[in-house]
Design brief:
Layout lengths: L1 H10 L4 H20 L13 H12 L9 H4 L2 H16 L1 H12 L5 H11 L7 H31 L1 H16 L20 H16 L1 H9 L8 H25 L11 H13 L16 H13 L12 H15 L5 E3 L2 E3 L1 H28 L6 H12 L14 H16 L1 H8 L21
Antiparallel strand pairs: 1-2
């Protein structure tokens, strides 16, 4: 197998990482072209291409930031295009391509398997096609259950046809952590703040999609929780801690805020607190007005957005496993241990370095985008709005304090590129752009020296 892979890399011009990055870009472009057609807009006119690119990028990168209101601007053709882009972006274009191959009865080549491995974020080619089959079946099953639950609320409100369509759309959007909604006028799910079925169904779909397919495959095949891999254990524990901890803090920060939760019942406050903790990682729905939240609530949201979901999932951010590895590295250093240890297991240095690189690159992107937006956008907009928007775009969340619709042409381009970088991954983009340099530089070890730290 190693021999075949080496020969394949020599024969092909593009590496799997480059194909992955290019593939997302092509899907975005196709989506933008379809959205620019007159049939896609309610007005019957051609939509400005920058808004089409922005919307298509947001859908494929499962972000949810929009310059045009999804519920009122687009026709059902446009909304369906957006839904298909969300599904493609959430599953990954290679998974969708695999589905097409299944229907056509075509064999999946080694080159395509290599790209699939990169897209699924797994280490082995063994059983990869079977895993993709499980992923597709699991995805459509969960989205189907979500649609049925939504239908119990939306059909009585909107009628059968519209209710079913809204149920399917929001189930796909929630599971893929996209945050697109059809409620109109940028209201998101604020009208359903006290609706347990809608809020809990959306929350469950977000969490299920954000845990990662690898974790669910393990849970399905494992008879005891203790037998789960270290990765799955970390993901499950960190997700629970972030949801519960985030919900408690949100309740404390917002329960007496007259513009968000003070007028709600206890049930409404609890639902809104849970939703405000779940959605930033990284779905983009909201049940309370974001621009009226307290500063502490908004800052907590920024932190949750930056962390995001888990590796191999539909969510964005630097990922829960990355944060856990860095946190446990700090704890190991504090306790004088040489290696990073988690649940009595040692973590390779290479993984620690990768976690550090991903986090630093993420911080750099958010900082640079925030600074650039503060220059390109009107000066009367608070700094908090720029940081919030930059983090939301990088972590592919979709939450906004209202800045998205006010972005200048340059601002739209910046946020579009940020969403793309966040979905594909900053490390993936760097590897895709980097040229393979052959030589002996990797074997050279320079003299050791010391610098002062801290």
């Amino acid at each position: 197998m190693e021999f075949d892979i080496k020969n394949l890399k020599k024969k092909n011009k593009y590496t799997p990482v480059q194909i992955l990055a290019l593939g997302f870009a092509i899907v975005i472009l196709i989506g933008a072209i379809l959205l620019s057609l007159p049939i896609a807009s309610q007005s019957g006119k051609i939509t400005p291409f920058i808004d089409c690119i922005f919307t298509s990028t947001s859908a494929v990168c499962v972000t949810g930031l929009v310059t045009l209101d999804t519920g009122t601007y687009w026709t059902y053709f446009g909304k369906t295009v957006i839904m298909l882009l969300i599904e493609t972006g959430g599953l990954g274009f290679m998974s969708v391509g695999t589905l097409v191959f299944f229907f056509l009865g075509k064999r999946i080549s080694l080159k395509e398997r290599l790209v699939m491995r990169e897209a699924m974020n797994v280490n082995s080619l063994q059983g990869l096609v079977k895993m993709v089959k499980y992923v597709l079946i699991f995805t459509f099953s969960v989205e189907g259950i979500g649609a049925v639950l939504f239908a119990t609320q939306f059909i009585p409100q909107f009628g059968i046809a519209k209710g079913i369509y809204y149920s399917v759309f929001h189930s796909v959007s929630a599971f893929c952590n996209a945050g697109f909604d059809l409620m109109g006028n940028f209201k998101s799910l604020t009208a359903y703040a006290n609706n347990s079925v809608v809020i809990l169904t959306v929350s469950a779909l977000i969490v299920i999609g954000g845990l990662g397919f690898f974790v669910w495959v393990e849970i399905y095949n494992c008879s005891e929780f203790k037998k789960l891999s270290l990765h799955s254990t970390i993901v499950i524990y960190s997700t629970i801690i972030l949801i519960v901890g985030g919900a408690i803090l949100m309740y404390i920060f917002e329960m007496n805020n007259p513009t968000t939760m003070r007028g709600m019942s206890v049930k409404g406050k609890i639902l809104s607190s849970i939703f405000a903790s779940v959605s930033p990682r990284t779905a983009g729905f909201n049940s309370i007005p974001l621009d009226k939240m307290t500063t502490a609530g908004n800052f907590l949201t920024i932190i949750l957005m930056f962390i995001g979901g888990s590796p191999g999932s539909t969510a964005g951010g630097i990922k829960t496993a990355t944060v856990v590895v860095l946190f446990m590295t700090v704890m190991s250093v504090v306790h004088g241990r040489e290696d990073t240890e988690i649940f009595k297991k040692r973590i390779k240095k290479e993984l620690v370095y990768k976690a550090l690189v991903i986090t630093v690159l993420g911080l750099m992107i958010v900082i640079v985008v925030t600074m650039v937006l503060s220059i390109t956008e009107p000066s009367n907009i608070p700094f908090e709005y720029f940081l919030y928007e930059a983090t939301s775009a990088f972590a592919t969340v979709g939450l906004t304090l209202g800045l998205t619709t006010k972005l200048t042409f340059v601002g739209k381009i910046i946020i579009t590129l940020t969403m793309y970088a966040g979905r594909v991954g900053p490390l993936t983009i760097i590897l895709a752009l980097a040229r393979n340099k052959k030589g002996k530089s990797g074997t050279i070890r320079y003299p050791e020296d010391k610098i002062l730290i801290g």
